Amino acid sequence: MSKPLDVTFTLAEIEARAGQGLADAVCVVFDVLRATSSIVTALANGATGVWPVADIAAALALRRRQPEVLLAGERDGVCIRAAVSGGVDFDLGNSPREFTPERVRGRTVVMTTTNGTRALRACAGAGRVLVGAFLNLGALARTLEQWRPPRLLLVGSGTQNEAAFEDALAAGALGEALQGLYPAEQISDGALMARELYRRYAGDLAGALALSRNGRRLLAVPELRDDVAFCARRDLYPVVPVLTGEVVRAQGTG
Protein backbone atom coordinates (compact mmCIF):
# COMPACT_ATOMS: atom_id res chain seq x y z
CA MET A 1 0.00 0.00 0.00
CA SER A 2 1.37 3.39 -0.95
CA LYS A 3 1.20 6.36 1.39
CA PRO A 4 -1.57 8.95 0.90
CA LEU A 5 0.98 11.26 -0.78
CA ASP A 6 3.34 9.49 -3.14
CA VAL A 7 5.58 10.31 -6.11
CA THR A 8 6.62 8.33 -9.16
CA PHE A 9 9.71 9.36 -11.10
CA THR A 10 9.70 7.42 -14.39
CA LEU A 11 7.30 6.51 -17.17
CA ALA A 12 7.77 2.80 -16.48
CA GLU A 13 6.85 3.34 -12.83
CA ILE A 14 3.56 5.09 -13.57
CA GLU A 15 2.68 2.54 -16.24
CA ALA A 16 3.23 -0.21 -13.65
CA ARG A 17 1.10 1.65 -11.09
CA ALA A 18 -1.65 2.03 -13.65
CA GLY A 19 -1.69 -1.72 -14.06
CA GLN A 20 -2.30 -2.07 -10.32
CA GLY A 21 -5.22 0.38 -10.40
CA LEU A 22 -5.48 4.11 -9.82
CA ALA A 23 -9.25 4.53 -9.54
CA ASP A 24 -9.02 5.81 -5.96
CA ALA A 25 -6.23 8.30 -6.69
CA VAL A 26 -5.91 11.84 -7.91
CA CYS A 27 -2.87 12.05 -10.19
CA VAL A 28 -0.95 15.21 -11.05
CA VAL A 29 1.30 14.67 -14.06
CA PHE A 30 4.49 16.71 -14.50
CA ASP A 31 6.63 16.98 -17.59
CA VAL A 32 8.10 20.38 -16.82
CA LEU A 33 10.50 20.43 -19.78
CA ARG A 34 8.20 20.69 -21.60
CA ALA A 35 4.92 18.91 -22.37
CA THR A 36 2.89 19.85 -19.31
CA SER A 37 4.22 23.41 -19.36
CA SER A 38 3.01 23.64 -22.98
CA ILE A 39 -0.41 22.19 -22.13
CA VAL A 40 -0.88 24.66 -19.28
CA THR A 41 0.17 27.55 -21.54
CA ALA A 42 -2.09 26.45 -24.39
CA LEU A 43 -5.16 26.29 -22.15
CA ALA A 44 -4.29 29.56 -20.42
CA ASN A 45 -4.09 31.19 -23.85
CA GLY A 46 -7.50 30.02 -24.97
CA ALA A 47 -7.13 26.55 -26.47
CA THR A 48 -10.40 24.65 -26.05
CA GLY A 49 -8.56 21.45 -25.23
CA VAL A 50 -5.36 19.46 -25.61
CA TRP A 51 -5.69 15.85 -26.77
CA PRO A 52 -2.64 13.86 -25.63
CA VAL A 53 -1.81 10.85 -27.77
CA ALA A 54 0.95 8.29 -27.46
CA ASP A 55 2.43 8.40 -30.94
CA ILE A 56 2.60 10.19 -34.28
CA ALA A 57 0.29 7.71 -36.00
CA ALA A 58 -2.49 8.43 -33.49
CA ALA A 59 -2.06 12.19 -33.98
CA LEU A 60 -2.29 11.86 -37.75
CA ALA A 61 -5.38 9.65 -37.47
CA LEU A 62 -7.12 12.35 -35.42
CA ARG A 63 -6.16 14.99 -37.99
CA ARG A 64 -7.74 12.89 -40.74
CA ARG A 65 -10.97 12.68 -38.74
CA GLN A 66 -10.88 16.29 -37.55
CA PRO A 67 -8.93 18.42 -40.07
CA GLU A 68 -9.39 21.56 -37.96
CA VAL A 69 -7.19 20.40 -35.07
CA LEU A 70 -3.65 21.68 -34.56
CA LEU A 71 -0.89 19.08 -34.43
CA ALA A 72 1.82 19.63 -31.82
CA GLY A 73 4.68 17.62 -30.44
CA GLU A 74 8.31 16.64 -30.53
CA ARG A 75 10.72 13.83 -31.11
CA ASP A 76 14.25 14.26 -29.76
CA GLY A 77 13.15 17.67 -28.49
CA VAL A 78 12.33 19.24 -31.88
CA CYS A 79 9.10 19.84 -33.78
CA ILE A 80 7.86 16.84 -35.75
CA ARG A 81 8.43 17.37 -39.46
CA ALA A 82 7.34 15.50 -42.56
CA ALA A 83 10.51 13.41 -42.67
CA VAL A 84 9.64 11.96 -39.26
CA SER A 85 5.84 11.79 -39.56
CA GLY A 86 5.73 10.32 -43.04
CA GLY A 87 4.62 13.43 -44.87
CA VAL A 88 3.03 15.97 -42.51
CA ASP A 89 4.70 18.94 -40.83
CA PHE A 90 3.21 19.49 -37.37
CA ASP A 91 1.83 22.97 -36.68
CA LEU A 92 3.61 23.40 -33.35
CA GLY A 93 6.51 21.86 -31.52
CA ASN A 94 6.76 21.43 -27.75
CA SER A 95 7.92 24.90 -26.74
CA PRO A 96 5.35 26.59 -24.47
CA ARG A 97 6.33 29.91 -26.05
CA GLU A 98 4.78 28.72 -29.32
CA PHE A 99 1.31 28.31 -27.79
CA THR A 100 0.35 31.96 -28.06
CA PRO A 101 -3.25 33.22 -28.05
CA GLU A 102 -2.90 33.99 -31.76
CA ARG A 103 -2.03 30.37 -32.52
CA VAL A 104 -4.28 28.39 -30.18
CA ARG A 105 -7.31 30.41 -29.08
CA GLY A 106 -10.48 28.49 -29.88
CA ARG A 107 -8.57 25.50 -31.23
CA THR A 108 -8.11 21.91 -30.09
CA VAL A 109 -4.49 20.80 -30.01
CA VAL A 110 -3.51 17.16 -30.58
CA MET A 111 -0.15 16.58 -28.91
CA THR A 112 2.37 13.75 -28.88
CA THR A 113 5.66 13.89 -27.00
CA THR A 114 8.29 11.38 -25.98
CA ASN A 115 7.16 10.96 -22.36
CA GLY A 116 4.63 13.51 -21.16
CA THR A 117 1.62 12.56 -23.25
CA ARG A 118 2.28 8.87 -22.59
CA ALA A 119 2.33 9.53 -18.84
CA LEU A 120 -1.00 11.34 -19.08
CA ARG A 121 -2.54 8.46 -20.94
CA ALA A 122 -1.15 5.98 -18.43
CA CYS A 123 -3.04 7.84 -15.69
CA ALA A 124 -6.36 7.85 -17.56
CA GLY A 125 -7.88 5.29 -15.19
CA ALA A 126 -7.33 7.45 -12.11
CA GLY A 127 -10.16 9.10 -10.26
CA ARG A 128 -8.95 12.49 -11.51
CA VAL A 129 -5.93 13.51 -13.59
CA LEU A 130 -4.50 17.03 -13.42
CA VAL A 131 -1.70 18.57 -15.45
CA GLY A 132 1.04 20.25 -13.44
CA ALA A 133 3.92 22.62 -14.02
CA PHE A 134 5.64 25.41 -12.12
CA LEU A 135 3.54 27.74 -14.27
CA ASN A 136 0.30 26.75 -12.48
CA LEU A 137 1.54 25.32 -9.19
CA GLY A 138 -0.34 27.71 -6.93
CA ALA A 139 -3.65 27.05 -8.69
CA LEU A 140 -3.08 23.30 -8.38
CA ALA A 141 -2.31 23.58 -4.67
CA ARG A 142 -5.44 25.63 -3.99
CA THR A 143 -7.61 23.17 -5.91
CA LEU A 144 -6.17 20.16 -4.09
CA GLU A 145 -6.60 21.88 -0.74
CA GLN A 146 -10.30 22.19 -1.60
CA TRP A 147 -10.62 18.60 -2.82
CA ARG A 148 -8.55 17.05 0.02
CA PRO A 149 -7.93 13.78 -1.89
CA PRO A 150 -7.26 10.79 0.39
CA ARG A 151 -4.74 9.47 -2.14
CA LEU A 152 -2.59 11.83 -4.21
CA LEU A 153 0.01 10.59 -6.68
CA LEU A 154 2.45 13.10 -8.15
CA VAL A 155 3.70 11.71 -11.46
CA GLY A 156 7.06 12.58 -12.95
CA SER A 157 7.02 11.71 -16.65
CA GLY A 158 10.80 11.36 -16.73
CA THR A 159 13.16 11.33 -19.70
CA GLN A 160 13.09 8.21 -21.84
CA ASN A 161 13.25 5.47 -19.15
CA GLU A 162 14.93 7.58 -16.49
CA ALA A 163 13.85 10.06 -13.83
CA ALA A 164 13.90 13.78 -14.69
CA PHE A 165 15.37 16.22 -12.17
CA GLU A 166 12.89 18.97 -13.08
CA ASP A 167 9.83 16.76 -12.62
CA ALA A 168 11.00 15.63 -9.19
CA LEU A 169 11.61 19.27 -8.32
CA ALA A 170 8.07 20.28 -9.31
CA ALA A 171 6.54 17.34 -7.45
CA GLY A 172 8.49 18.41 -4.40
CA ALA A 173 7.23 21.97 -4.76
CA LEU A 174 3.63 20.80 -4.79
CA GLY A 175 4.27 18.47 -1.87
CA GLU A 176 5.75 21.38 0.05
CA ALA A 177 2.67 23.50 -0.69
CA LEU A 178 0.41 20.71 0.64
CA GLN A 179 2.16 20.08 3.95
CA GLY A 180 -0.99 21.01 5.80
CA LEU A 181 -2.91 18.19 4.09
CA TYR A 182 -0.31 15.45 4.37
CA PRO A 183 1.73 15.32 7.58
CA ALA A 184 5.07 13.51 7.67
CA GLU A 185 3.63 10.10 8.53
CA GLN A 186 1.41 10.20 5.43
CA ILE A 187 4.07 10.81 2.79
CA SER A 188 6.23 8.23 1.06
CA ASP A 189 10.00 8.32 0.93
CA GLY A 190 9.70 9.34 -2.72
CA ALA A 191 7.56 12.33 -1.74
CA LEU A 192 10.04 13.18 1.02
CA MET A 193 12.95 13.02 -1.44
CA ALA A 194 11.15 15.29 -3.90
CA ARG A 195 10.26 17.80 -1.18
CA GLU A 196 13.81 17.95 0.13
CA LEU A 197 15.10 18.44 -3.40
CA TYR A 198 12.74 21.35 -3.87
CA ARG A 199 13.81 22.92 -0.57
CA ARG A 200 17.40 22.78 -1.75
CA TYR A 201 16.71 24.68 -4.99
CA ALA A 202 13.56 26.73 -4.24
CA GLY A 203 15.45 30.02 -4.37
CA ASP A 204 16.60 29.58 -7.98
CA LEU A 205 14.27 27.42 -10.02
CA ALA A 206 15.68 28.58 -13.36
CA GLY A 207 19.18 27.70 -12.21
CA ALA A 208 17.96 24.32 -10.99
CA LEU A 209 16.28 23.50 -14.31
CA ALA A 210 19.46 24.49 -16.11
CA LEU A 211 21.30 21.75 -14.16
CA SER A 212 19.03 19.02 -15.48
CA ARG A 213 19.73 16.83 -18.48
CA ASN A 214 16.77 18.30 -20.37
CA GLY A 215 17.67 21.82 -19.33
CA ARG A 216 21.22 21.46 -20.62
CA ARG A 217 19.95 20.02 -23.90
CA LEU A 218 17.54 22.92 -24.43
CA LEU A 219 20.12 25.54 -23.48
CA ALA A 220 22.39 24.19 -26.23
CA VAL A 221 19.76 24.97 -28.91
CA PRO A 222 19.54 28.74 -29.52
CA GLU A 223 15.86 28.76 -30.52
CA LEU A 224 14.86 26.66 -27.49
CA ARG A 225 17.12 27.96 -24.73
CA ASP A 226 14.54 30.48 -23.47
CA ASP A 227 12.16 27.61 -22.71
CA VAL A 228 14.17 26.76 -19.59
CA ALA A 229 13.62 30.11 -17.88
CA PHE A 230 10.01 30.22 -19.10
CA CYS A 231 9.18 26.82 -17.61
CA ALA A 232 10.77 27.84 -14.29
CA ARG A 233 8.31 30.71 -13.82
CA ARG A 234 6.14 30.14 -10.78
CA ASP A 235 2.37 30.75 -10.77
CA LEU A 236 2.21 32.48 -14.14
CA TYR A 237 -1.22 31.03 -14.94
CA PRO A 238 -4.23 30.31 -12.68
CA VAL A 239 -5.40 27.44 -14.88
CA VAL A 240 -6.11 23.92 -13.60
CA PRO A 241 -6.08 21.45 -16.52
CA VAL A 242 -8.04 18.23 -16.01
CA LEU A 243 -8.06 15.18 -18.26
CA THR A 244 -11.73 14.70 -19.14
CA GLY A 245 -12.20 11.58 -21.21
CA GLU A 246 -9.53 11.81 -23.89
CA VAL A 247 -8.98 15.57 -23.76
CA VAL A 248 -7.34 17.90 -21.24
CA ARG A 249 -9.50 20.94 -20.57
CA ALA A 250 -9.29 23.91 -18.23
CA GLN A 251 -11.74 23.27 -15.40
CA GLY A 252 -11.69 26.74 -13.91
CA THR A 253 -9.08 28.59 -11.92
CA GLY A 254 -7.58 27.96 -8.53
Describe this structure in words.
With about 250 residues, the chain is α/β, with parallel strands linked by helices. It has one domain: Alpha-Beta Complex (putative 2-phosphosulfolactate phosphatase). The protein has twelve helices and ten strands. It has helices at about 10-20, 35-45, 55-65, 80-85, 100-105, 115-120, 135-145, 165-175, 190-200, 205-210, 215-220, 225-230; strands at about 5-10, 25-30, 50, 70-75, 80, 110, 130, 150-155, 240-245, 245-254. The strands form three sheets. Strands 1-8-2-7 form a four-stranded parallel β-sheet, sandwiched between helices. It has a four-stranded mixed β-sheet with strand order 3-6-4-5, with helices on both faces. Strands 9-10 form a two-stranded antiparallel ribbon. A hairpin with a 2-residue loop joins strand 9 and strand 10. The longest helix has 13 residues, at about 165-175. The protein is globular.
Summary keywords:
single chain; 254 residues; 4-stranded mixed β-sheet; putative 2-phosphosulfolactate phosphatase; 4-stranded parallel β-sheet; globular; alpha/beta
Mean pLDDT figure? 96
Largest sheet: 4 strands, parallel
Number of strands: 10
The secondary-structure element order is: EHEHEHEEHHEHEHEHHHHHEE
**Structural class from helices and strands?**
alpha/beta
CATH superfamily: ComB-like
- How many H/I helices? 12
Number of domains: 1
Which CATH class is shown? Alpha Beta
Give the overall form. Answer: globular
Helix fraction by DSSP (H/I, runs of at least 4): 40-55%
